[in-house]
Design a protein that fits this description.
Distance between the termini: 51 Å
Shape: globular
Helix content: 40-55%
CATH class of the largest domain: Mainly Alpha
CATH topology of the largest domain: Butyryl-CoA Dehydrogenase, subunit A, domain 3
Number of strands: 11
Length: about 375
């Protein structure tokens, strides 16, 4: 049956014709290319590589960047793209989000024009896949503790260290690696075929199984002097990339929640227990109402956030608010959806169990719920409580 999106507050009326067209095109693609195969991909633990040329042809890689083969769509339209991709699966949205926000964005924002010309057109076409190396085995929430280090020689940089939980690592041709230097933290563009660079696949996951997750090992990796991103020094560059990714996540998880809600509502109307469909029982209706209410609130947050971003008014604490609220909402929605489906909720025949597992990763990466709580706490009290 056709997917029925949540629009309780008539928010489509606040979207432009172009935004609706973009959303609907991605929605149709997800129905056609993702949903028929994603359950099997999740069960078998592999990423559907055939999706890459499809999303590239649609202009979804670096979609909100301008030039260099990127279409430069608006920020609300970009958010709607993320929403529809995650309605299919968090792993699909993660691939597109990492390619655009974490690999292309730092080259676009902090790179030289030569670096942009060299890498971005191929990345927009999906011919070059990128990954983003910031998190390390011992340093996630505290990136300032990273041990990866780059030493400047006469004609090259030599990078040594490890990165962990890296989406796209084993399928990437280029990595944006963040490392300490004598001048502060810097970003480096590292081709993955450089001697000393290895990617090790992270296996045995119960979450994001239709996504490539890797450990990166850099053992005296030598890159030329012009491999460094010249436009930023310090962690502010890496954190800007994370803000770009968190923006997309905040939209994406609404798609996950809408998929769960749509499936749970249909199931509740069809599943008969005792004398009537379970949708006719008060406790089930309470669950559905909570799901609808929280999805609608998250949609309102996203729309406001997107318009603020388009006007240059958005700040990192706004994104932390949205990421924290919306992911927690999607997590709770997935739990309620699984409850409504009962035992069927753990079967691959339905979507809810897959979204329930995936959201556990999304709840953690790009800043945990607790870290975003502290970000907001610092904003409202002006006192940092991280240590």
């Amino acid at each position: 049956m056709d997917f029925e999106a949540v629009d309780f507050w008539g928010l489509d009326a606040e979207l432009s014709e172009e935004e609706i067209q973009i959303r609907n095109a991605v929605r149709a693609m997800v129905d056609r290319e993702v949903l028929p195969i994603i359950g099997k991909c999740f069960e078998e633990g592999h990423f559907p590589m055939h999706v890459i040329p499809v999303v590239a042809e649609m202009g979804l890689l670096g979609a909100n960047l301008h030039g260099y083969g990127c279409p430069g769509i608006g920020e609300v339209a970009y958010g709607l793209v993320m929403q529809e991709l995650e309605r299919g699966d968090s792993g699909i949205r993660s691939f597109v989000s990492v390619q655009g926000s974490l690999a292309m964005y730092p080259i676009y924002t902090f790179g030289s024009d030569e670096q942009r010309q060299k890498w971005l057109p191929g990345m927009a076409k999906g011919e070059i896949i990128g990954c983003f190396g910031l998190t390390e085995p011992d340093f996630g929430s505290n990136p300032a503790g990273m041990r990866t280090y780059a030493v400047k020689a006469s004609d090259r940089w030599v990078i040594t260290g490890n990165k962990m939980w890296i989406t796209n690592g084993n399928i990437a041709q280029v990595a944006v690696i963040w490392a300490g230097t004598e001048d502060g933290f810097r970003g480096f563009i590292v081709p993955t075929d450089t001697p000393g660079f290895r990617a090790r696949l992270v296996e045995h996951k119960f979450s994001l199984r239709a996504s490539v997750t890797s450990e990166l090992i850099l053992d005296n990796v030598e890159v030329p002097l012009d491999a460094v991103l010249p436009g930023v020094v310090g962690l502010k560059g890496a954190l800007a990339c994370l803000s770009a990714a968190r923006y997309g996540i905040s939209w994406g998880v609404v798609g996950s929640a809408m998929a769960v809600y749509d499936e749970a509502l249909r199931y509740a109307k069809e599943r008969v227990q005792f004398s009537k469909p379970i949708a006719g029982y008060q406790l089930v209706q309470e669950k559905l109402v909570e799901m609808l209410t929280e999805i609608s609130k998250a949609q309102l947050v996203n729309l406001r956030m997107g318009r603020m971003k388009e006007r240059g008014l958005l700040r990192p604490h706004h994104i932390s608010f949205a990421k924290r609220n919306n992911v927690a909402m999607a997590r709770r929605t997935a739990q309620l959806g699984r409850e409504i489906l009962g035992a069927n909720g753990i079967m691959y025949d339905y979507q809810v169990g897959r979204h329930l597992c995936n959201i556990e990763t999304v709840y953690t990466y790009e800043g945990t719920h607790d870290i975003h709580t502290l970000v907001l706490g610092k904003e409202i009290t002006k006192i940092a409580a991280f240590e």
